[in-house]
Amino acid sequence: MNNEQKLLVQKTFEMVAPIADTAAALFYGRLFEVDPSLKPLFRGDLKDQGKKLMSTLKVAVHALDRLDALIPTVQALGRRHLAYGVRDDHYDTVGAALLWTLEKGLGEAWTPETKEAWTTVYNVLAKVMKDAANEVAPLSLRTPLSRRGSAHRLPAVKRPSYRPPMGRPSMPPGSRMPASIQALYGGASSQAAPSSKSGSASTRLPRISNPPTIT
């Protein structure tokens, strides 16, 4: 994900923002058309869900220039979505529905470059969410119900106690930065983090309240 792709995503999102309600309706209509089994994951009013979806997208898109604040927010979303019943394979369906919606909303502005930029940004952020969820989830909670036997309610997910300092992400001593985080920085080096705990403070991205079930 390079700077040109970030700027293109931000620019085209502003073109869709004025028709946010219509875009959200198109998204959910397409999502349920592709995979009707996802409907039970959305328990609330779809109009309200749509507003939350567009609000979450707005925060994420605007924060692409502040990755130090965006990363922990996206990781937290991934862990929460696990508790909602979201599996790894759902991200592909959501991504396809999102790209379809953007194509309809942008019209002629949906160029090959725009498609590539949105695909890259979505895939990177989705991987960050999946990696965060998989760190705290047993394999049985990441696989389809048909492969696990009977369905059961997902337990509440306890967040890991480790939180990296703000500024450029750092990892616990001796560990390496996940590939998904490296991708956010355009393929930064994955050298082991130093043992020093010092770090500069920066403004955290406001926590997203009541995020949509799937983003």
From TrEMBL:
GO biological process, one term: cellular response to nitrosative stress
UniProt keywords, alphabetically: Heme, Iron, Metal-binding, Oxygen transport, Transport
Biased composition (Low complexity): 186-202
Biased composition (Pro residues): 162-172
Pfam families: Globin
Superkingdom, natural source: Bacteria
Domain Globin residue range list: 1-134
GO molecular function: FAD binding; heme binding; metal ion binding; nitric oxide dioxygenase NAD(P)H activity; oxygen binding; oxygen carrier activity
Region listing for Disordered, in residue ranges: 147-215
Family, per entry: Belongs to the globin family.
Protein name: Globin domain-containing protein
Organism annotation: Polyangium spumosum
